[in-house]
Amino acid sequence: RMHRAMPVERLLATVRRYAPRARGVSSVGESISAADELAGADDMIVVAGSIFTVGDAIAHFAERPDEVPVT
């Protein structure tokens, strides 16, 4: 986790002004799992961000070989 990252509670307080149902998680892996729970069969989950974010996403999927991402 980046020491410069904004605390999730602070970011969530701002985001909820525009998306009241938004929820916060503490890691990229948790966010992928949460998105997977919310996604429908025809939905796509997109991971975007820094090289660190993408690296965390790759690590998440490496631990779950049955969840093969489309690259």
Q: Name the helix and strand elements from N-terminus to C-terminus, one letter apiece.
A: HHH
Contiguous runs where pLDDT drops below 50 for at least 5 residues: none
The total count of helices amounts to 3
Sheet with the most strands? none
Terminal residue distance: 24 Å
Helix fraction bin: 40-55%
Strand content: under 5%
Shape: globular
The whole-number mean of residue pLDDT values reads 85
* Structural class by sheet pairing and helices: mainly alpha
Walk me through the structure.
It is built from three helices and no strands. The protein is globular, with a radius of gyration of 13 Å. The longest helix is centred in the last third of the chain and has 12 residues, at 51-62. By secondary structure, it is mainly alpha-helical. The two termini are 24 Å apart. It is 44% helix and 0% strand.
Structural descriptors:
mainly alpha, 3 helices, globular, single chain, 71 residues, 44% helix
What's the layout of helices and strands?
Blueprint: H1 8-15, H2 28-38, H3 51-62
What's this, in brief?
This protein has 71 residues and is mainly α.
